Amino acid sequence: MMRFNQLQGGYQGRAVTPQVTGALAAGSMTALVGANGTGKSTLLKTIAGLIPPVSGSCELHISRNALGWLPQRSELETRFPLTAYELVAMGCWPRCGWFGGITRALRQEIDAALDAVQMREFADAQPAMLSGGQLQRVLFARLLLQQSRVWLLDEPFNGIDTPTVTLLMSILQQQQQKGTTLLVVLHDRPLVARYFTDVLSLDESSTVQTPLLRRVAS
Ligand SMILES: Nc1ncnc2c1ncn2[C@@H]1O[C@H](COP(=O)(O)OP(=O)(O)OP(=O)(O)O)[C@@H](O)[C@H]1O
Questions:
Q1: Separation of CA 42 and ligand 1 centre (Å)
Q2: Of 3, 61, 83, 120, whose Cβ has the fewest other Cβ atoms within 10 Å?
Q3: Which CATH architecture has domain 1-67+149-157+181-218?
């Protein structure tokens, strides 16, 4: 369960998102939509605890360190001296610590996650050498390793081809079936209509209620 209490995101004390009140049920998958500049990324960063709320609050019921977080691709730094395998392995750190070492069981999990996103053959590639879609698949594999109960994803399918979107959407659906709560910023309305029953739109008004509250009220 994620609960929002008159939550507003913004910068230097100036709100740029509507005020959001309500809750997302555990195991729900919600599309966060709205026109450019309505504050989707800002709201997601506020929920993730990366920027403080301008007003109101948000309860996640998990430690923010344990969040599954995927920023917009433009915000990612890929020029670091790691392989795709090591990038995926970073998803283990909440469980084993930075210096805990990777056990045989974790190696099997990393291989399985790379298989799930069809990237095993690129395990030794540097992230900067991967295409946008390949990098996104590796980042999804890292999310799988994190085993977080809450995933916040900012425009994960921007510039991604249809087969890869289908593959990554199936991972989101499997994750939801395992009870993970997902909030996903999306622009592609046909994709939202096809896969998402819950939609949180920032277009509607200056005060927004989340889908669960709307369903409870109706
Ligand atoms: N670091 C920042 N400092 C001040 N204002 C910002 C900052 N980042 C974004 N903004 C402003 O906040 C508003 C909302 O931006 P945000 O990126 O959250 O919108 P969005 O709905 O995600 O947009 P898009 O669909 O274009 O990605 C915009 O007017 C933007 O200029």
A1: 6
A2: 61
A3: 3-Layer(aba) Sandwich (3.40)
